[in-house]
């Protein structure tokens, strides 16, 4: 049926798509992300996350590796049944068995919405130690697998694993063979997260300059964050011409993780002129996605995680609090609403100032005098007060409890409904 769509038409559609000033976002939270030690996602959790990704507007979802085991297979199958919108892709080695499992897992999905991602290690280390293959054996193996997969899939993407440590000339040869065999998207992967932005952009430019059939395929990039440069690398590649960025929510994934999609999406949202491309992903969905993935994976982003860490919108420092009360933009890089978070919280702790104390007391309906503010501030900072002030302090603290810093909260003598956290 869809084999009737001949290559010519496919090529035309692809070339049109490549001209659009859009960076496509491919999510691999459920595959590379879920490979992180300790994460266990049941099929229904995967469906929940995939639905949220679809609602956010990602272009494609790497749903899992069906040949890796029954739970992986079931996860991909469940997503295929329940999730509409993005292209749903299954990972496969170049083995026929893997291709069959991928096709089976996505059998219910319409041919134009299901994809296979075939991969093979391309670097000298992978060729020698993993595959025991020569360069030409790697090329032949990849091309044959891609060719066989065209019988079951219209959308085939090919990833050269450890591409960033592969000889550039050989890599281009491999990509050319993959496109000739039927891949419509090729992936440049920095599997061990070793690149810098300049090196990454150079590699992407070189691929575009040397792969003859590059006009007939999308170019995707896949970065890991071992050197803390995954976001910068991905964006450098977008500037250099990459069409697809693949990453994970909260940057979960092997070792230091994958590039965090929310970081890439926010940068593209803030600076479309700089990248001359925009994203169709809704930045206001990022905070909700981050929370959902954190809850289901039980991997919580650090408080200071870029873009979605909870400290992005909390401050304890008196000078920052004073500025934010006068105009939130004074100490905020972007409004919390832009990622669907907020409002800003002024945390009360050792570093706080009187304006934040007064603000919180007033917001709770009190009309504090200067003396009240001083009394409370002094107590928050030192944990001390004179014996006669206990009842009064407790009254205030009850109102202020939700804003107290977890670390600095001095322990009131009486409990009176104020939550007291014992040090862990
Ligand atoms: Mn990876």
Which whole number gives the mean pLDDT? Answer: 92
**Distinct small molecules bound, one entry per kind:** manganese (II) ion
Under CATH, the topology of the largest domain is which? TIM Barrel
Note the main sheet. 8 strands, parallel, barrel
Shape: elongated
- End-to-end Cα distance: 62 Å
Bin the helical content.
40-55%
Number of helices: 16
User: How many strands in all?
Assistant: 11
- Architecture of the largest domain in CATH? Alpha-Beta Barrel
Output the CATH class name of the largest domain: Alpha Beta
Q: Unreliable stretches, pLDDT < 50, 5 or more residues?
A: 410-424
Gyration radius, in Å:
26 Å
Kindly give the count of domains: 2
Secondary-structure content class: alpha/beta
Name given to the CATH homologous superfamily of the largest domain: Aldolase class I
Q: Would you write up a description of this structure?
A:
This protein is of the alpha/beta class and 424 residues long. The protein folds into two domains: 7-297, Alpha-Beta Barrel (TIM Barrel), CATH 3.20.20; 312-408, no CATH class. The chain contains 16 helices and eleven strands. The protein has helices at residues 7-19, 43-56, 70-82, 96-105, 124-131, 135-149, 168-181, 197-210, 230-240, 261-270, 272-275, 286-297, 318-326, 354-363, 370-382, 390-400; strands spanning 22-27, 60-64, 87-92, 114-121, 155-161, 185-190, 218-223, 244-247, 278-279, 314-315, 345-346. It has an eight-stranded parallel barrel with strand order 1-2-3-4-5-6-7-8, surrounded by nine helices. Strands 10-11 form a two-stranded parallel ribbon. The termini are far apart. It binds manganese (II) ion. The site of manganese (II) ion has 5 residues, from loops. Manganese (II) ion binds next to loops.
